Amino acid sequence: MNLTSTPKELKKYLASTEYLSRETIENFRRNSEQEERQKILSDKLESFIIERCPNCGAYGFYRWHFLGKLKHPDCRWSWYVKTGTYIRAKFKDAFSSVFSDVKQDVVGSGIAVHKGCFDVISDLAFSIASFFLVILPITIMLIPIQLFCRLTQPKPKNR
Ligand SMILES: [Zn+2]
Hints:
Layout: H1 7-16, E1 19-21, H2 22-31, H3 35-44, E2 48-52, E3 59-63, E4 69-72, E5 77-80, H4 83-106, H5 111-114, H6 117-151
Antiparallel strand pairs: 1-3, 2-3, 4-5
Helix pairs in contact: 1-3, 4-6
Bound molecules: zinc ion.
Residues 53, 55-56, 58, 72, 74-75, 77 line the site of zinc ion (ZN).
């Protein structure tokens, strides 16, 4: 990640990279004064998780893939996060998606002013219902699948 890269280059880089070391991030945060680039970084880092590579021990930000799969290109290792980490991350996602809907309805962007009270309540009910009927069951259903993938993954050779 280059400190002189334009916001566009930075976005492109962060959209494709699998791993960023903690030093890279800290160095960037310290030396980049442009607020726009700082914001791009913090937005894009939401799809990353701080972990340690089980193969070579590299500590940093890894891109989150389906079922919590992470890849470390430097040592060509990929692995699944611990099931506890997976559950915490998925529940956080599920809750924050519902709460951002609710927040948008109630306080967001002046929409609520134009909407009737009934509309707001029915939207709210829809968000909550979709959380309990769709998001939550899928989240729970994927947990044993994640556990299975994690338990059947190959063990690191280096350590
Ligand atoms: Zn590694």
